[in-house]
Amino acid sequence: MMMGFGYGGLGLFLMILFWLAIVVAAVWLLGRLFPQSAGSAPPPSDGQRGEPRESPTDILKQRFARGELSQAEYDQMRRKLLE
Fold first, then answer.
1. What are the CA-CA distances from residue 12 to residues 1, 6, 17, 18, 26 (Å)?
2. In this structure, are residues 33 and 57 in contact, taking their beta carbons and an 8 Å threshold?
3. In this predicted model, which residue has the larger pLDDT, 49 or 82?
4. Are 25 and 31 in contact (CB under 8 A)?
5. Using the 8-state DSSP alphabet, how is residue 41 labeled?
6. Interior CA angle at 35 toward 33 and 38, to 5°?
7. In whole angstroms, what is the distance from residue 53 CA to residue 45 CA?
8. Can you tell me whether residue 37 is helix, strand or coil?
9. Distance CA 49, CA 41 (A)
């Protein structure tokens, strides 16, 4: 009994090809519907993508400008960074 797979295996080949096409179409569709969650990692935050990386002194200046540091703390940390 061949159970419908006649013509020298052509039916089996076509069935495998059909299911392969279904799987490829499903993966493609999911990739189009959810582009961010399709296996991509979060972007690096250390300047690897061309963004300029902030230096420690720039961060220190920003903290001082926001009022997070006093003048004495700023001067002490700046001297430490420049050593």
1. 14, 8, 9, 10, 21
2. no
3. 82
4. no
5. P
6. 105
7. 8
8. coil
9. 13
- Give 20-82 as a DSSP string: HHHHHHHHHHHHHH-STTSSPPPPPSSSTTSPPPPPHHHHHHHHHHTTSS-HHHHHHHHHHHH
Distant-in-sequence, close-in-space partners of 46: CB < 8 Å, separation ≥ 6 = 53
Residue closest to 80 by CA, chosen among 56, 49, 48, 62: 56
What count of Cα atoms within 13 Å lies in the side-chain half-sphere of residue 12? 7
> Between helices 71-82 and 56-65, what is the axis angle to 10°?
180
Q: For residue range 5-35, list pLDDT tens digits in order.
A: 556 677 788 899 999 999 999 999 988 888 7
What are 38's two structure tokens?
């399709």
| Rounded average pLDDT over 44-72 | 81
Give yes or no for a contact between 12 and 5, defined as CB atoms under 8 angstroms apart: yes
